[in-house]
Amino acid sequence: MTKRLRLLAASLFALTMTSTMWLGCSDTLTDFTEIEVDDALVAELSSQLLKTTGNGAPNGAHFNLNLIGVSKDKSAAMDDNNGHRIFVKLYGNTKIYLAEGDDFDVLDANGTDGNGARFQLPNPDPDNDGMTVYSVYARPLGKWGGSGAITPCATAAGEDGVFDTVDDEEVCSMTVLTVERTKGKSHFQNVSKYLLYVNVDLDGDGVTERYNLFNDAMQDYLWSYDNQGLKLVQLRFYEESTDVTL
Question: Which helix (H) or strand (E) holds 40?
C-alpha cells in the first residue's frame, strides 16, 4: 500500500473513531501517519470510497430515467423511442405502466395523454426474499419547490381469486416514495424498497405482505405518480443488491 493511501485510511479511521466515542481534551490525534492500519482495513476503506460518488449514488454503469413534469399535456406519439425520459403532469396524477423485460427501456414516454406512460424493467426480486437483483436510486432536481409521491400499484384478483373478472380491484402499496425539492444540493437515496415492491394486505388478515414487482399474486403493475409542481425526478438503476428487509 502507498504512503498516501495509508494516510487516507488512517484519517478515515480516526474520523470514524471520533464519531463513535467521546474524546477528552488530552486525547486529540495530532499525527495520523503514526496510526497502525493493516492492509485489510486500508483495502476495505478504499473500496467503500470508490463505491459512492459525491451525489450519493454508487459508482458504475447504470440506467438513467428522468421523470419530467410539464405544465401542458403532450400530444406527440412517443412509443418505442428508446429514450431515457418520461413526461408526467406537473400537477396531478400520472400512471406509469410497468412491463417485465430483460432490459430497462422506455416503451411510451408520454404520461400526459389518456393512456399513460410505459416503462420496461426486469423482475427485481424473482424469489421475493427481500434481496433485490438490482437497486434504484432517486433524487429531485430543478428549481427548488414542488413535491411528489410515487406509489406502486397492481391489480388483484378479488374475492373469486380469478383475474379479469368483474371483482378485480386495483390495490396500492402502503409504502409510498415521497420526494421534495428543497434548497441546496440534491443527493440520491436508495429507494428500492419503495419502488420495487407492493406492500399490501391481500389475504385480509390485517398483516401487510411484501410482493415484488411482477409477482404472480397480482398483475398489471404500475407506478402512480402524484405530482405537486416537481419538475424533475431522476432515477438510476444499478446492478447491485439491496436488502429491503433491513
Answer: helix 39-51
